[in-house]
Amino acid sequence: MSQRRPTITDVARAAGVSKGAVSFALNGRPGVAEETRRRILAVAKELGWTPSHRARALSTSRAFAVGLVLARPPELLGADPFFPAFIAGVERVLAEQSQALVLQVVTSQRAEEDGYRRLAADGRVDGVFLLDLRVADPRIALLEELRLPAVTLGRPDVASPFPAVLVDDRPGIAAAVRHLVELGHRHVAHVAGPDHFLHGAARRDAWENALRDAGLSPGPCVPSDFSAAGGARATHHLLDLADPPSAIIYANDVMAMAGMAVARERGLDVPGQLSVTGFDDTELAAHISPALTSVRTDPSGWGGVAARTLLDLVDGNGGPDVEMPPAQLVVRASTAAPPPTPHQSP
Amino acid sequence: MSQRRPTITDVARAAGVSKGAVSFALNGRPGVAEETRRRILAVAKELGWTPSHRARALSTSRAFAVGLVLARPPELLGADPFFPAFIAGVERVLAEQSQALVLQVVTSQRAEEDGYRRLAADGRVDGVFLLDLRVADPRIALLEELRLPAVTLGRPDVASPFPAVLVDDRPGIAAAVRHLVELGHRHVAHVAGPDHFLHGAARRDAWENALRDAGLSPGPCVPSDFSAAGGARATHHLLDLADPPSAIIYANDVMAMAGMAVARERGLDVPGQLSVTGFDDTELAAHISPALTSVRTDPSGWGGVAARTLLDLVDGNGGPDVEMPPAQLVVRASTAAPPPTPHQSP
DNA sequence: AGCATCTCCCAAACCGGTTTAGCGACCGGT
DNA sequence: ACCGGTCGCTAAACCGGTTTGGGAGATGCT
Fold first, then answer.
1. Are B297 and B169 within 8 A, CB to CB?
2. Cβ contacts (< 8 Å) between B102 and chain A: which residues?
3. Which of A122, B4, B14, B260 is the most exposed place for a label (fewest CB within 10 A)?
4. What's this model's pTM, rounded to 2 decimal places?
């Protein structure tokens, strides 16, 4: 019938011991007899006592939470398949450790840094995830200055004191290029993500290198922004060229789908006259027409590993970088042999 | 050069006042001379002092955070345009109040209730958002029992002590039906969301009522699950009927896009032989071919209003329900007049 | 001058845990 | 019988704020 929730003092009194004993018993620390420990825990359960997270946070100077600051332009937020899946993976491991996830969504980079500052200043979190690594990412130094432990998704291009979860997009892109080359394509373009993202650059490099490895010169590359509108724009640009590509590798599925639509509106058959590949392998990719050849990634798996790595780091067990399995190509109906062209038919 | 961050005691000492005075000054409470207040604040700024969120949380028994528990099957997480946008809207108002958002993503309903229990038991949050209302939603009673303030998105079908942010999907669906009827459709089917969601049921009712209002009998309705796979399945089902519909209203864009693909694979022209409408108006909707007629919603706007409502509630200013503007139909290329059929041509 | 009132501030208690210092009981060894 | 060491526990300090009770000094009123 008690209105207010029981405190450690209530448990101590009921068990006939001191607060300290209850604390020791709860945390499984030595120095309390097994018999006593059991009794204390029994009383605690009977009273329905749960240690106050707030009090514990104050006295241990820990937040028991990790943070994620996400900078996304509003129009991309809804379309991004990565971030919700990543979070789900994170949650899976946080939940079993009674840790919480504090999320901040911001729309500009300036706000993003403020977000980290606030998380740090408030002591809301014990560590953070660093996503969407950028070229010469200033956030690394910021987090160092804030003394905020972090785990990066991908390997930064600047010196970083933080463990990284290494995800390699390149094999997937390379596989896509090889797949297209094997089909006979000689003119493979790329619609990339923004230049300043490391993963955008990595996918672009992979595309370029794979083509060179095949003895071909890379087709045109158009940097874009991961949005459907951007993908459509880039596609128009490529198809307007004097010598348009016979295949386009897009840096994500959304741009690829928009690109397919553009091709179609221009009267081009996909894959008959233009092959298209995406990246992410979203659920929709398999259910559009033609079904989209894409590169499957595992954001949820990355989230889980990143969370575990971060919790270890926060506990003082800074581990080494973790390598994740490479992305895999999933071949569907949006890729096929190119049409015969003046270049190829004598 | 101090390693550890300054505390209120440091500020008090430096300003030559007591801790209490600093606290009063900071919180703008009466009882401290204007001159003194300015001096204290100056010293605080000079020392770079920020009140410890943890200490404040303990002494005021407030978390200065709100929570969101999201139950989604993994395969839907990436495709759902609603939740990231909603969160972005929430953040916009939380940020300006120095509140944080604690997120929990779970995959089963059982886990969802545990999620709320944990948030409450840990005192991690002062209130929560209740999304995806279900028929006879048990979470209402749970939150009441947990004494956790909440704001619901939509009006529950059970007695609820919580303020609601009222979003009405029905006008959008009704507009879609009217649009199709005006085009000449007489046989309009619906691919719905899961039956147990209130908004799924609402969209279904709206579809049904709008058809009746037009003097037509509702075509078949297939409940589905908001996934691309589900949308494809439902579409096959509808097109396999002896008397297939000439138009299908889908409960979200993803199912509509998958449905369009199915129609196409079966050799049906959209919109020539089958008209299709979606719901959500995702960014991609405008960039597929044919561009998808859809119903535009404003999840980010809802998030902002829901956050403000929740913060007010937590502060003891439980307000009335808030009505949001209705969803609007956006007509694009996926809808057109139906082909002449035996029914219609004498 | 005397007294009530008001303003401004301080000291101390409090929130609910964790952690340290230390004390008595018990143990084995000599 | 005495001594050093371990075990099991308690009391109290501590984390860093907020809040309450009350005291000193200035002011107003008669």
1. yes
2. 65, 100-103
3. B4
4. 0.93
